[in-house]
Every structure is written in C-alpha cells, then in structure tokens.
C-alpha cells in the first residue's frame, strides 16, 4: 500500500474508504455482474447488477466521493455520434436505438466507472480474484459437460454460454488477466495461489479445445506473442529471455492444438483446403460489395441489421452476418461507422501503451491489457462476439487496466502531490510546515507547489520540494506586456500540470477559495482536499472537502489539518525559508563598509506595509530607533520596499526611508532596500531580532528563527491567527483598527519584554509563549 499506514491516501482495495456500506454494495454488484456476463439467459440479473453499479457511481459523484475519469472520451463520443446518426436511415430505428444503449452506452459507462473506481493495483487484484473464481466454475462446468458427452456445438455448452463462440471469446479475454494475477501472487509469495492459477490456465486451454473453436487458439497465440514482445521491449536480460523461450514453447503447443482442432472440426483434415472452402470468404465478399454500394449509410446500428437489410443472404443458420466486427459496422453504418469503430479500437491500445515504460507492476498490467486487446480483436475478425456480455466484460476489464495505468495505487511508483497556494508571502510561508510534513510522511513522493510569481521566491532552495510552478497575476504583468499574456501563459502552465496526472491536489488555506478550486479542477488530480464554505457539506470537485470546526487557531494549524485525508496528523513544526548565501555575504559586506560593529545585536526594522492601517508613523519610528540606539543596546538595519509611493503596481517607501535616515544620520542605522523577495530573506537572516507590521516580512523573520516585535491592528481574531509562529515574540495591538494608534511607550515596553524573553531558557524557543501588549493599557 503506497499511502502510508493510515491509508489516508485512498490505498487498498476500497473504492469508497469513508463509506463502507457503499463500498460493500459496489463490490457485491460488481461480483454479480462479472459472474453473469459470460452466461446466457441472465439478462434480468445482468440488468439489476448494471443498475446497481450505475446508481452507486451516481451517488458517489453527487456526494463527491468519486472523481469521474473518462479516458477515450473523444473516440467514444465519435462512435456514439455515428451510431445515433444511423437512426436516420435505419431499417428498424427502435431496434437500433436499443442496440446503441446496450452496445455503446452501457460498455462506455462500465469502462469509465472501472477507470474511476478501480484505480489501485489492490482493487484491480480484487477484481481479478472475482474473475478467477467465476472462470474456475465456468471452465469446470464446460469440461464436465464435455466429459459426459455434451461435446457438440449445439449441446449443453452452447445452451449455457449462448454459443461456443461466446465462450471461446470469454476465454481469450480472461486468460491474459489470469496469467497476470498469477504473476502478482507469485511476487507476493503466495505460491500456492500462483500454482492454482497456472492450473486454471491449463484448464482454460482444455475448455478452448472442447469448444471446437479454431480461431481461439490463433488469438491465444497472438496474446502470448504480445506478452513476450512487450517484455523484450522493456529490456533484454536473463529473465526476459527465459520468458521468451517459454513463450516459444507455448506457441508450438498452441499451434499443435490449432491443427488438431481443424481435424476435429473441419470437413477435411487438410488445413489449407479447409481454409479455402470456409464460408466466411463468401460472407466477406458479399459484405464488401454492399458497403461499396452504400458507403455512407447502411441498415442501422445493431448486428441484426445485416439480416434485416439482406434477408436473401443466409446460407446457414450461423452465417447470417459478415462474421467480422469491422465489416459488420460497415454494413450497419457505412464507411463512417468503420472509421469511428476503428478509431475507438486504436485509441485503447495507444492508451495502454503509456504504461509500458512505467514501474514494474504498472508495466505488467499494461502488457496484460495489450495482450488481451490483441487477442480479442483478432478473435472477432473471423466472427463478431464483441458485443453483449463479452463486449461489456471486455470494456469493464479494459477500464480497470486503464485506470491503474493513469495513476492509481502503483506501489512501485511515486505518489504525486500538488499544493496550491496563490495568496500572499506570509500565507505561503505558513504553508511550509505542511510541506515539510508531506516530505517526512512520503519520502518517495513527488511534491510540487503552484504559486504566483510574487510569492514564489519564498520557496527557493526549500528542501523536499521537487518543483515550484509560478503564474503571473494579471495585475502583476510586466511593463509593456500585453494584457492577455499572463492568462495565455497560465493556460499553458495548467495544461502542463494536468498532463502530470497528480494523485492529490491540496488547496492550502484556512478558508474556502473558489479560484483555487477552479485551478485544482483544471489540474485534474485524482483527489482534491480543501476547506468547504461555511454551512456547506459538499462542493463539486472538492471530493475530500473539510468542514472547519470554527475554532480560532493559527494559519499554520489550519493548513496542517488539510493533511488529515492523507493520513498525516500531529503538531506542525516551525516555519522554514532558506536564505541565499551569496546575498547574505553581499549584505554583510555592505553593513561592514557602512560601519557595522560586530558584537552588538543587529535589529532589522521593516517599515513597509501594503495596507495603510498597518503602517506605523515615520516620526514614531524615528523616536523608537533613536531611543534603542542611544544607549548602544543595538544597531539597526532599516529595510523597506524601494520605489515611489505613487507607483500603482508596486508602491515603494523610498521617501519614508529617506526621511527616517536623515533624522537618524548620527545613529548606527544602516539602509538596506530590498528590491526582491530573496534580498529581504537574506537581509533578515543577518539580524538578531526584527520589528515589522503583520505581513510577509514578519512571517519571514519567524521562518528564519528570529524573535519578532510585531504591530497588529485591532482586528477580531487576527493576533490569534497570524502571530509569529514558534519564535519568541511580542505583539503590539492597536486600540483601533490602525497600527498608527500604537504609542511609542507601548513599542518601547514591548521591545524590553522581547529582550527579556530572549534571555530566558532555550525552552521558550521550542514552544512559543503568546504575549499581547494592548496599547490601551498604556493610555
């Protein structure tokens, strides 16, 4: 199981881990369906099982317990579109519409449900176990009826399986999967199971022989050849060469059985002569002529359309259609029908081919799927049993294989997680404990983060992150850049992320974010976790939505709770950012050149704040720094965002800084404007403690382990949610909704308390205290 001991990632064979009753009902319905699909006379039971599966899947979609994946959507729609168009010229439109429902709608739904629900290797093995049980019963029944004398094509075998062609097609469909199941069991050291499955495969060969079907052995030989060829494509070594040798021996055995079957079934023991007199040549010639006569239309969708359109062609009871699944589509829908059908047939192996270069287990599943596809396709080139029960079973199994290949629970492949955090710098910094916990819990996972280019540098150099993807907001576009350029670039980024096929998307943040959810939907991960809106129990696309309990806690703790569905719990660690060493060395040199005296504490004072209510007046900064430097308690590094205050896109504080520096020219106050976020991080890394308003600089200082004196406006709950995390700190809280109303005395008293706290035992650094100095106490 790949997702850890807590199984929070949806590992195991459970389809709906949080809804055990629905999960149990799903598997019961699936077991019934797998059991009855190859058996004739079970239409009612088959319909009930299909209805149950469709209802459970519909409930899961509505309740956000299932994310629907629709591989091969375009080929399915094209095929269905041509079939529906055939109603315009169908001889019996009601019949054709009924056949579209049974032969296209139901198989497509089964394909997509299997691709969505059976996406883990464990779930696929559970399905294969069901398949092995059913195949064991059917094969034993077939051999028993043969042993008591029912060996003719119209005997008891034909009665139960609605014709030996159906049963031979069933055997061709399931045998590669039974072989794969045996391989999995052997890998899991379940050797008794593996030997039992090998015996079952031998019995399947006996059942194929009993059916008197010749094409089945050719299809089985092709399956063996595909299996051996795909293994050799993955690399030639001693094991693959041994497997190829065994495949060669098996091909010789199948060839012998094929020749023997001709002698038992045919009118002559001469294989060449038997092929020449086969009635299929006349059928194929007749079908080709009729398609050439009506290339753009036909008798309408459905196998019986051949009989309806050409009742005169019926040389035998078994020879009333073209006996070729492609030619039959031409009889029904002309060349457009052939093209649409071939498009669907080609799309499936191309989809399965993607898994050939994946990790070992996924590659084995992909090879199995390719072998099954090759055998079933070839089998139905001399007949047409690619419909009804055999067709539905084929698409069900193909969907399960496609789901695992697309990114299910391949225990040898890395889990892929995308964390979306599109907010400000401080918000992203408060996400770093969750990112570190993800790496610790999933050391082999692929962890990537989607941010905006404004806050992306906060993650530069952060260990444990495999990739950071940044997009530009429209309001942050560069000078001279077209208005549409950021949006076009964003579409390209989201398309590339979608192709990465993430297992999880985490919408990091303490509140519901509609825009972040739209990004998550476009990325198209298997599961998405985030907070739900207040009073809402489900949101489309947010299958693992979390209801906030309403308790006021830190942003770090709220974000950390989002890891619960992945099996991660506990106490978040400290914030983390990484300062660039070259920038630190450059700034240290600048401070030394400006007269910095080592040995004295260096206080970083960040005077910039985007919102006016978070700005402390320049005169009070001057008075505070004058008092703090007068008695040589510390030296000051003045930080600010450079630029003009009138800049609408990136307002700066050059004028404010110049005013403060001019007033403190005689004091050890060193200017250090930070043009980039990386520069701000490097500068804060040099200081011993920091003063800043609530915002990005404050959280960056905390992430660097610096004690912080922070200015907060008196907003409800803000100090409880945004205080500096896990570092010594003092909060100066305004009596009003404006930092400007915090007095100088309050700031001086807060600084004294912070210095005293820093001199306490180191235990105070491991677990921060919550201190809040309210300015109204000083009035």
Key phrases:
single chain, 779 residues, Rossmann fold, seven-stranded parallel beta sheet, six-stranded parallel beta sheet, elongated, disordered N terminus, disordered C terminus
Which outline best applies?
A: elongated
* Helical residues, percent: 40-55%
Strand content: 5-15%
Structural class: alpha/beta
Distance between the termini: 62 Å
Instruction: Give a quick account of the main beta sheet: strands, pairing sense, barrel closure.
Output: 7 strands, parallel
Can you count the helices? 29
Low-confidence segments: 1-12, 151-162, 408-413, 761-779
Task: Give a count of the beta strands, DSSP E runs of length 2 or more.
Answer: 13
As an assembly, this protein is: single chain
Radius of gyration: 35 Å
**Major β-sheet strand ordering:** 9-8-7-10-11-12-13
Domains (count): 3
Mean pLDDT: 82
What does this structure look like?
The protein is built from 29 helices and 13 strands. With 779 residues, it is α/β, with parallel strands linked by helices. It has three domains: 388 residues, no CATH class; 151 residues, Glycogen Phosphorylase B (Rossmann fold, 3-Layer(aba) Sandwich); 198 residues, 3-Layer(aba) Sandwich (Rossmann fold), CATH 3.40.50. The strands form two sheets. The protein has a seven-stranded parallel β-sheet, sandwiched between helices. Strands 3-2-1-4-5-6 form a six-stranded parallel β-sheet, with helices on both faces. The protein starts with 19 loop residues before the first helix and ends in a 5-residue tail after the last strand.
């Amino acid at each position: 199981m790949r997702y850890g001991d807590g199984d929070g990632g949806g590992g195991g064979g459970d389809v709906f881990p949080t809804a055990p009753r629905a999960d149990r009902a799903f598997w019961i319905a699936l077991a019934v369906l797998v059991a009855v699909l190859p058996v004739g006379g079970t239409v009612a039971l088959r319909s009930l099982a299909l209805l149950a599966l469709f209802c459970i899947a519909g409930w899961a979609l509505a309740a956000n317990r299932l994310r629907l994946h629709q591989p091969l959507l375009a080929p399915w729609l094209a095929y269905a579109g041509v079939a529906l168009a055939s109603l315009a010229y169908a001889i019996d439109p009601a019949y054709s519409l009924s056949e579209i429902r049974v032969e296209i709608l139901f198989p497509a739904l089964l394909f997509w449900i299997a691709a969505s629900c059976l996406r883990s290797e464990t779930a696929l093995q559970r399905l294969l176990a069901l398949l092995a049980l059913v195949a064991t019963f059917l094969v034993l029944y077939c051999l028993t009826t043969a042993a008591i004398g029912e060996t003719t094509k119209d005997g008891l075998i034909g009665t139960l399986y609605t014709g030996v062609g159906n049963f031979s097609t069933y055997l061709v469909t399931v045998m590669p999967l039974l072989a794969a199941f045996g391989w999995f069991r052997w890998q899991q050291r379940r050797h008794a199971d593996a030997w039992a499955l090998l015996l079952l495969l031998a019995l399947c060969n006996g059942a194929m022989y009993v059916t008197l079907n010749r094409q089945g052995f050719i299809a089985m030989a092709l399956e063996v050849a595909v299996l051996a060829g795909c293994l050799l494509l993955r690399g030639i070594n001693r094991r693959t060469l041994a497997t190829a040798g065994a495949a060669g021996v098996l091909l010789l055995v199948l060839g012998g059985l094929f020749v023997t079957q001709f002698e038992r079934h045919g009118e002559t023991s001469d294989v060449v002569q038997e092929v020449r007199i086969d009635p299929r040549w006349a059928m194929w010639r007749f079908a080709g002529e009729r398609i050439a006569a009506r290339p753009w239309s036909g008798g309408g969708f459905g196998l019986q359309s051949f009989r309806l359109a050409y009742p005169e062609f019926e040389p035998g009871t078994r020879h009333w259609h073209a006996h070729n699944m492609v030619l039959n589509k031409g009889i029904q829908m002309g060349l457009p029908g052939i093209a649409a059908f071939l498009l669907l047939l080609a799309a499936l192996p191309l989809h399965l081919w993607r898994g050939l270069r994946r990790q070992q287990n996924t590659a084995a599943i992909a090879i199995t799927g390719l072998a099954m596809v090759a055998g079933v396709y070839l089998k139905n080139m001399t007949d047409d049993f690619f419909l009804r029960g055999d067709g539905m079973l084929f698409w069900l199994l193909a969907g399960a294989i496609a789901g695992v290949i697309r990114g299910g629970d391949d225990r040898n492949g890395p889990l892929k997680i995308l964390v979306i955090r599109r907010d400000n710098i401080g918000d992203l910094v408060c996400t770093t404990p969750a990112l570190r916990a993800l790496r610790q819990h999933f050391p082999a996972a692929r962890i990537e983060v989607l941010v905006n280019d404004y806050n992306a540098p906060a993650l530069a150099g952060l260990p444990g992150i495999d990739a950071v993807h940044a997009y530009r907001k429209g309001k942050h576009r560069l000078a001279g850049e077209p208005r549409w350029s950021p949006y076009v670039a964003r579409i390209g980024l989201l398309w590339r992320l979608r192709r990465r096929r993430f297992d999880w998307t985490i919408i990091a943040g303490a509140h519901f974010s509609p825009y972040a959810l739209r990004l998550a939907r476009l990325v198209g991960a298997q599961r998405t976790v985030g907070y739900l809106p207040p009073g809402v129990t489900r949101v489309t696309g947010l299958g693992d939505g979390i209801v906030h309990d309403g308790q006021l806690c830190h942003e770090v703790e709220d974000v950390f709770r989002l890891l619960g569905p992945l099996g991660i719990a506990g106490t978040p660690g400290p914030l983390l950012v990484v300062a660039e060493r070259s920038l630190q060395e450059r700034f240290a040199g600048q401070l030394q050149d400006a007269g910095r005296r080592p040995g004295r504490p260096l206080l970083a004072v960040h005077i910039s704040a985007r919102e006016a209510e978070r700005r402390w007046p320049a005169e009070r900064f001057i008075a505070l720094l004058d008092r703090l430097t007068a008695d040589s308690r510390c030296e000051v590094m003045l930080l600010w965002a450079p630029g003009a205050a009138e800049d609408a896109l990136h307002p700066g504080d050059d004028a404010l800084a110049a005013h403060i520096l001019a007033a403190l020219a005689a004091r050890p106050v060193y200017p250090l404007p930070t043009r980039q976020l990386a520069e701000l991080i490097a500068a804060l890394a040099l200081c011993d403690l920091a003063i800043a308003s609530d915002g990005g600089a404050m959280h960056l200082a905390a992430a660097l382990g610096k004690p912080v004196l922070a200015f907060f406006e008196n907003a409800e709950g803000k100090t409880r949610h945004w205080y500096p995390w896990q570092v010594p700190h003092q909060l100066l809280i305004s009596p009003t909704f404006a930092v400007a109303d915090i007095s100088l005395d309050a700031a001086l008293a807060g600084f004294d308390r912070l210095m005293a706290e820093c001199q306490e035992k180191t235990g105070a650094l491991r677990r921060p205290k919550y201190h809040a100095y309210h300015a109204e106490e000083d009035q």
